[in-house]
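hey so i finaly got around to running the thing on DUF58 domain-containing protein from Pedobacter jamesrossensis. pasting the sequence first so u can double check i didnt mess up the copy paste, my clipboard has been acting weird all day
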Amino acid sequence: MKKIFQQYYANLFLTDRLFVALACCVLLFVLKFFFNWLGEIPEIASGVTFVLLFLDIFILYRNENGIEAKRITAKRLSNGDENPIEILLKNRYGFGVKLRVIDEVPFQFQLRDKDFKLALKPYELKSIHYNLRPTKRGEYDFGFIRAYTGSPLGFVNKRYNFDGAQILPVYPSFINLGQYELMAISRNLTEFGIKKIRKIGQSSEFDQIKNYVGGDDIRTINWKATARKGGLMVNTYTDERSQNVYCIVDKSRVMRMPFEGLSLLDYAINASVALSKVAMLKQDKAGLITLSETIGSIIPADRKASQLGHIIRVLYKEKTRYLESNMEALYSSIRNVVKQRSLLVFFTNFESLSALQRQMPYLKRISKYHLLVVVFFENTELKSLSTEPAKDVEGIYHKTIAEKFIYEKKLMALELKKYGILSILTPQQKLTVNVINQYLALKAQQKI
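ok and heres what it spat out for the 3d tokens, dont ask me to read them lol
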């Protein structure tokens, strides 16, 4: 009995309207000392207030399931993206109610603003929509849904606690993969920031013989088939398929730097997933290598249906380390695992030219056997600092240093180009688009 009473008492909350009514009753009793003509009015007002209070409690508690609430989410969240969250609410009371709904989101978001106010008509169904943007991979623990319900009398609120406890994993970005699929197959790639690349010559992989239509290259006319059919026939060719595309993700300390909540490692992981998806759509094989002071995970290139899911599950667990990457171990692993010439997209970062020069011998040896693309990052905060006008001598000093680092990044790209190594120097926000753009350009130019 005591437990039941405590349960009801714990979920009962007095409102400001009740305190205002009680304050008015007290005021009437005070005024009665000075104005006798008030008579029994204070007692009547107090009695009406308490009757309304108990009536309010009765009509709220007579229906144990007066409010229903349910949180609807995906089975997993996408890192760095806006993930939609929906709360369904239903009023089972025979009268309209006012609701205050609090959703206990995971502590990682550090949010206290998921507090919604709305009104529901009798037996009405409504939904609340909002978005969450996680910035770290891992498990996110959602808590209760708290719904504070008030009747039209408004003297008390009853709290409903819905056990919406959920633990959702946050995986590398997958929400926008559909957009990148369009990038892989669409001819109008400029809408996505992708340049159209004119093909040099034609692919060596024969596709079919078809009837000539206006605009076909006359150099592809098949004269033997034309003679047999009595009409112009042309050969068609497709991009070469089944080529290996490996994403190499550096997990060393240089990838710990955060931008807009995401670390460089997370940006690289999201881009790797997107590139693997596009490569498989282009009928190439996608693989993965991670490294820090030792080699981490190695997934041999393949294009089977489960390959992308395997890559995502492996990248889900990857974390940055505190030591430098072991390029010698990377070179040995590539020589042992990657047996044929492949496209290697190496996601890393260099903050100084000397750091690049330390790794250059290994990069040159890798590029001797494979088509290597080194992807490293612009420091967008330094770039914004360099564009701001200096207000004093200290500001001039800071701006000069920022411009020096920006210039050094450009020297790194030139240093790589000098040895025939392709590079992408990109801001974090455009990483995925720029990497896919480079891959499609290399496919169009038949360099892989």
